[in-house]
């Protein structure tokens, strides 16, 4: 992959290579935060931000960012200083590091490592640790409660997420997401449907349903945003943060949403493959389709946020342990049986 | 110095430094977070040794699983913002010094007398596939035994938890 940069300095090539996902995340976060407020507005029958920048308030996020940069960086007196300052950066680093194994197009993937999706699952578990770190270091009871809830949430969602990813791995036979995507190219199902995994096997549709619920839990989105629920915990682990450190949390949250949506796209919806076979396909179109499908899933996440109320902690535990985990394992066996029979 | 060598020393210093913070810190939560850096440093050293599967497992099991359970337990049980009265001074000077000197002598002896062989091995291209095949063929029995052991542990813990809940407490 690095060789294709020609004869520029290898260290520089690695840097450029690593900066491509970062650029995408930063631009996406600005658009997505504005988009989320517009979606919220339209769902609640109002207009949303409408003044900054003219056309539908498109510059609102940029104005917010400029405001956040100017804000004072407040550290509470009794906070654990190093951990308090470190937690937001660790959270963003964990979700950014996971982008390394996503194939953005047939030409671009951060790292062709063999363990691909397994690495992604492993590195995102560090994210929860940074929430606990922020919650504990703030020395605030709301923050600590948010951190504890995040830990409880982790042990609930991790099993169904990994098990649904495993169902796809059973079908594909590879952990490398590039190989998984390449297996889904072409339009052969019923003569016109693309060879995406979601169309290949009826039980994978159920697997996608479970996967989508688990990634809602993993990315702390409503109806499972228990670590930060504003109405009971003020803002959970974010309560004591201000300025750019708080902005890092928001950035990490949106990056995490995009990451998990893109993972879902890669596993179930053909990754960078065009839905029209060879029409509009190629390395550049790959970027377009991959991000478009990812943004569609992000949009569904926003839609759900402004539609459903929040679950309680015990209800979340019951959903994950009592319903999702048994369903996933039964579904895993059914997927494997379907693969053996057909 | 090679780039990988620099990386190795960076991660080695991270591992040892955070491990010593973990041992010497009086705050138990600080110790737990220092343990996180130690585990991440060890995972990075695994990556440098081409054991990427082991590194990811280390992250998933130790950092994402066990460490979070440790933190959860510590935060639920400790009071006074997790400051416990640890004795970080040496208590039994004579037995401790005898033990540590013996360990030092043994380790230096082994280190100096071993014939360190350095060979140029081929870089393995696919690690998981070989590992999976080995687990499903040559090491099938230990793999299954480990699985059964974990299942027994899960069933046992569920049994204990449900018994505790169903029994009415005496104070009521």
TrEMBL record, chain A:
* This enzyme's EC code(s): 7.1.1.-
In its keyword annotation, does this UniProt entry include Repeat? no
Q: Which UniProt keywords apply?
A: Cell membrane, Membrane, NAD, Oxidoreductase, Quinone, Translocase, Transmembrane, Transmembrane helix, Ubiquinone
In the bilayer, the protein is annotated as: Multi-pass membrane protein
Q: Which Pfam families match?
A: NADHdh
PROSITE patterns linked to this entry: COMPLEX1_ND1_2
Which reaction is recorded as catalysed by this protein? a quinone + NADH + 5 H(+)(in) = a quinol + NAD(+) + 4 H(+)(out)
Q: Where in the cell is it found?
A: Cell membrane; Membrane
TM ranges are 12-34, 86-109, 115-136, 157-177, 197-217, 254-272, 284-304, 316-338
The protein's matches in InterPro entries, at most eight in alphabetical order, are given as: NADH_UbQ_OxRdtase_su1/FPO (IPR001694), NADH_UbQ_OxRdtase_su1_CS (IPR018086)
Molecular functions (GO terms): oxidoreductase activity
Q: Main role?
A: NDH-1 shuttles electrons from NADH, via FMN and iron-sulfur (Fe-S) centers, to quinones in the respiratory chain. The immediate electron acceptor for the enzyme in this species is believed to be ubiquinone. Couples the redox reaction to proton translocation (for every two electrons transferred, four hydrogen ions are translocated across the cytoplasmic membrane), and thus conserves the redox energy in a proton gradient. This subunit may bind ubiquinone.
Q: How does it assemble?
A: NDH-1 is composed of 14 different subunits. Subunits NuoA, H, J, K, L, M, N constitute the membrane sector of the complex.
Q: Which family does it belong to?
A: Belongs to the complex I subunit 1 family.
Protein name, as recorded: NADH-quinone oxidoreductase subunit H
Automatic annotation (TrEMBL), chain B:
Q: Does the keyword Magnesium apply?
A: no
Q: What class of enzyme is it?
A: translocase
How is this protein situated with respect to the membrane? Multi-pass membrane protein
Annotated TM spans: 6-25, 32-53, 59-77, 89-111, 139-161
Task: Provide this UniProt record's keywords sorted from A to Z.
Answer: Cell membrane, Membrane, NAD, Oxidoreductase, Quinone, Transmembrane, Transmembrane helix
Q: Name one Pfam family in it.
A: Oxidored_q3
Subcellular location(s) of the protein? Cell membrane
Entry EC number(s): 7.1.1.-
Q: Which InterPro entries match?
A: NADH_UbQ/plastoQ_OxRdtase_su6, Nuo/plastoQ_OxRdtase_6_NuoJ
GO MF term list: oxidoreductase activity
- Swiss-Prot/TrEMBL catalytic activity: a quinone + NADH + 5 H(+)(in) = a quinol + NAD(+) + 4 H(+)(out)
As for family, the record states: Belongs to the complex I subunit 6 family.
Job of this protein = NDH-1 shuttles electrons from NADH, via FMN and iron-sulfur (Fe-S) centers, to quinones in the respiratory chain. Couples the redox reaction to proton translocation (for every two electrons transferred, four hydrogen ions are translocated across the cytoplasmic membrane), and thus conserves the redox energy in a proton gradient.
Protein name as it appears in the record = NADH-quinone oxidoreductase subunit J
